[in-house]
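Action item from last week, closing it out:
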Amino acid sequence: MEAGKLRNGNKVLMEGQPYIVVQYMLRPQSRGAAKMITKMKNLITGAVIEKTFPSSENLEEADVSLSRSQYLYSDGDNFIFMDNETFEQFEFLKDKLGDLVNFLKDGMDVSIMKFNGNPINVELPPTITLEVTATEPGVRGDTATGGTKPATLETGFVLSVPLFINQGDKIVVNTVTGEYRERAKV
């Protein structure tokens, strides 16, 4: 792939590591070839780097694929997943998953990013529906103020919800920001 054709989401191989382009800018030069200025994220370590390429430089595309898997359970700091096609089980450490552990529930389908056939990352859907397991009861008439209160979800994650949400309600949560989106439609 030519560097001048890089776009957000392209996956390239640099120094044996897979990177994804998160930002790019093509800067024309008054003399000579244009330069492609990129911000890239290492898909294994999560480190973000800035890299400048001549627009005509050839880059190798990374062998990165997505597969459907199921989250099975956690065993301390290890989170166990199973590939839906091969039934192979593999694990990720809690540190590698970061904030995603707040949204994982047993039996949930996720996307697993694989590099050369080895699992390297987990991708959740942008929103998921979770049940509220603990919160203070709402008081009739409190909805006019637009206030919020803390609520504990079935995964143990605590977030702010509107006052009208009660224990047992199902809510939609944004997995990127960790914020309440709406009450789930039943």
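Closing note: The radius of gyration is 21 Å.
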